[in-house]
Task: inverse folding
């Protein structure tokens, strides 16, 4: 591994890279891990003297931070590459250059440098330290020797510098990378590699930096945060250490694996005031037969038991989940079991997807035998039931008084504020002189979809 580490050194470290100038634009697709990585990429490039631009039309290089989780996501990104190419044609220049980062870079590697897409640079999820050097060479017109840099490293130490990336409502902090589970449908273990923890000291230092920059809330991120395992420190231990940081008021985390949501962990979440009572715990399917085929490592009864315990241990807890419909072999009966879970758990929010076969994953050996129209109709039925269950739960909230924190001005209506409760409910409040970060009591007056409306009790 020592050789690999040496090879990892960027040819120009970020600090040594010449401030050659040039503007970069980063577009992010997919999960929050990518949002964090994009902030880190921007930080590396800004430190090397490049300017961040929000406009691809004026950028010298556009980096697409990509997602491979479903075919649809990849197709959208491929057509985006075509659009950026057309900016070049319109400008009559060789720029913007196009770089692909993230999961597609890892999955497709050199293929992206060929054929119709022919991007200029491909850098995988663990190799972003090489970006300043490579971008410098490309912008200077020197063809980068290695325009494709992929492969996994042993360390997780990518940091998004809060002083360069303004602190927002909930600053993202990746605590580990990769995934050691082998869910049969999932491309992530291939694209992001094995699970590697960021050192606790690095995580704590990063969060202290966020607080120093004015942040009051963090979201700890990872493919499976609940499986965090540093020698002598598990996720519950890490939460306790993070909760001790002075000035940090709220801690959220994404994503928890139901199997790792142990009772002692839930006790800790319930006990620590600053840990928000919201669990995103993807079940994927309510059918034990399908869960086994997915290799999810829990069954429906264990999942429901976890939800039940969480309701007792964590005051005010809310749940959200991901679902896949139309997994190979899913029957109407399996699907009914999924609908049943929705009724039992009463999620605040769900994210549901049609199964998409990914090349090389274990489930690709199974026939993708649920017809597309059946997948579509199951997806619609799932969402319809969720709307129905949620409408009942949400209506019952009218008249309640919640504590919520001001995130900023709401998009609509004019003059309104957007607030969020600890259990992740969005509330729009009209009128009142509020300040971002301020905590207020709001009386709920109604809701539309997952957004609540309320009036400020103290304004
Ligand atoms: N097809 C459909 N959905 C998928 N997901 C992951 N892999 C696939 C796939 N092959 C969904 C899961 C996961 C979410 C991030 O994406 O629900 O939790
Ligand atoms: Fe994919 Fe399963 Fe790992 Fe989640 S836990 S990233 S679904 S393999």
Result:
């Amino acid at each position: 591994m020592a050789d690999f580490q040496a090879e990892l050194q960027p040819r120009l470290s970020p600090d040594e890279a010449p401030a050659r100038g040039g503007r970069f634009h980063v577009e992010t697709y997919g999960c929050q891990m990518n949002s964090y990585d994009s902030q880190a990429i921007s930080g590396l490039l800004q430190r090397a003297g490049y300017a961040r631009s929000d406009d691809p039309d004026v950028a010298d290089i556009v980096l697409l931070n990509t997602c491979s989780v479903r075919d649809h996501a990849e197709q959208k990104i491929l057509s985006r590459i075509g659009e950026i190419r057309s900016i070049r044609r319109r400008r009559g220049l060789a720029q913007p250059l196009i770089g692909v980062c993230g999961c597609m870079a890892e999955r497709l590697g050199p293929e992206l440098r060929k054929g119709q897409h022919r991007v200029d640079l491909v850098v995988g999820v663990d190799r972003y330290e090489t970006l300043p050097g490579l971008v410098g060479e490309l912008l200077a017109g020197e063809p980068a020797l290695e325009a494709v840099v992929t492969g996994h490293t042993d360390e997780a130490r990518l940091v998004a510098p809060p002083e360069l990336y303004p602190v927002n409502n909930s600053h993202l902090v990746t605590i580990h990378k990769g995934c050691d589970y082998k869910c049969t449908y999932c491309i992530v273990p291939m694209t992001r590699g094995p699970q590697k923890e960021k050192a606790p000291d690095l995580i704590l230092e990063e969060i202290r930096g966020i607080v120093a920059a004015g942040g009051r809330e963090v979201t700890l991120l990872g493919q499976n945060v609940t499986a965090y395992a540093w020698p002598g420190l598990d996720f519950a231990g890490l939460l306790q250490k993070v909760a001790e940081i002075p000035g940090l008021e709220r801690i959220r985390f994404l994503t928890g694996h139901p199997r790792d949501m142990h009772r002692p962990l839930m006790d800790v979440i319930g006990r620590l005031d600053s840990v928000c009572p919201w669990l995103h715990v993807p079940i994927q399917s309510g059918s034990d037969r399908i869960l086994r085929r997915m290799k999810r490592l829990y069954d429906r009864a264990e999942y429901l038991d976890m939800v039940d315990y969480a309701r007792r241990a964590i005051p005010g807890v809310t749940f959200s989940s991901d679902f896949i419909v139309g997994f190979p072999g899913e029957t109407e009966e399996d699907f009914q079991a999924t609908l049943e879970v929705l009724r039992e758990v009463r999620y605040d929010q769900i994210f549901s997807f049609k199964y998409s076969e990914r090349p090389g994953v274990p489930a690709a050996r199974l026939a993708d035998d649920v017809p597309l129209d059946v997948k579509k109709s199951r997806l619609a039925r799932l969402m319809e039931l969720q709307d129905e269950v949620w409408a009942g739960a949400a209506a019952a909230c009218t008249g309640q008084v919640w504590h919520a924190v001001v995130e900023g001005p709401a998009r609509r209506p004019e003059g309104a504020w957007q607030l969020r409760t600890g259990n992740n409910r969005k509330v729009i409040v009209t009128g009142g002189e509020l300040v971002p970060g301020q905590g207020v009591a709001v009386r709920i007056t109604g809701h539309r979809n997952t957004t609540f409306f309320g009036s400020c009790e103290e304004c």
Notes: DSSP finds 13 helices and 21 strands in the chain. The longest strand covers residues 439-448. The domain at 4-149 is CATH 3.40.50.2300 (Rossmann fold). The pocket of 5'-deoxyadenosine (ligand 1) is lined by residues 69-70, 185-186, 282, 284, 322, 324, 353, 355-356, 358 (CB under 6 Å).
